[in-house]
């Protein structure tokens, strides 16, 4: 699975976004350690705060199907579906990814029309708080 292929999956996922309020569709494609792909889109709600971002949709789908290890996520989105620029994950999604993903190994690919930018989770969420910081 190349980065460009994962971004292409995220672009497909964006087509299913339910974003009648923000008009900002987002798609995500999450790659598990074993090579499976979980797609997600943002799902908005008339009670705006109930909205779920594309990244969490993909992650929660995967977790609910028994996956626990992930290697990368690609994200594509923009106002009115314009994807000229990268769409960065929100702070909540960064933290939720942190629960399951190795900050230094997990890759976040921000796709746009001409390519994608690649970061580790720790680059986008430095000095993070995770499972090891609490008693289990
Ligand atoms: N959104 C995502 O799906 N992922 C992000 O990381 C950023 C924001 C969605 C939430 C909302 O439906 C719309 O984009 C505008 O905020």
SSE string? HEEHEHEEH
Task: Provide the structure class.
Answer: alpha+beta
Mean pLDDT: 98
Distance between the termini: 34 Å
Stretches where pLDDT is under 50 for at least 5 consecutive residues are none
Rg, Å, rounded: 14 Å
Task: Assign a percent range to the helix content.
Answer: 25-40%
* Biggest sheet character: 5 strands, mixed
Task: Characterize the quaternary organization of these chains.
Answer: single chain
Got a strand count?
5
Estimate the strand proportion: 15-25%
| Order of strands, widest sheet | 2-1-3-4-5
Bound molecules: tetrahydrodeoxyuridine
Number of helices, where a helix is a run of at least 4 consecutive DSSP H or I residues: 4
C-alpha geometry: globular
How is this structure best summarized?
Helix content is 27%, strand content 24%. The chain is built from four helices and five strands; from the N terminus they run H-E-E-H-E-H-E-E-H. It has helices at residues 3-14, 54-64, 91-100, 121-124; strands at residues 26-32, 37-41, 70-77, 107-112, 115-120.
């Amino acid at each position: 699975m190349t980065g460009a292929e994962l971004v292409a999956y995220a672009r497909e996922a964006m087509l299913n976004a339910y974003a009648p309020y923000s008009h900002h569709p987002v798609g995500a494609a999450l790659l598990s350690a074993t090579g499976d792909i979980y797609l997600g889109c943002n799902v908005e709600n008339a009670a705006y705060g109930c909205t779920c971002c594309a990244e969490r949709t993909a992650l929660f789908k995967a977790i609910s199907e028994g996956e626990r290890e992930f290697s990368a996520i690609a994200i594509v989105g923009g106002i009115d579906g314009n994807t000229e620029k990268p769409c960065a994950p929100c702070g909540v999604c960064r933290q939720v990814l942190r629960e399951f993903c190795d900050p230094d190994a997990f890759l976040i690919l921000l796709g746009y029309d001409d390519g994608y930018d690649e970061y580790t989770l720790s680059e986008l969420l430095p000095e993070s708080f995770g499972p090891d910081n609490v008693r289990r």
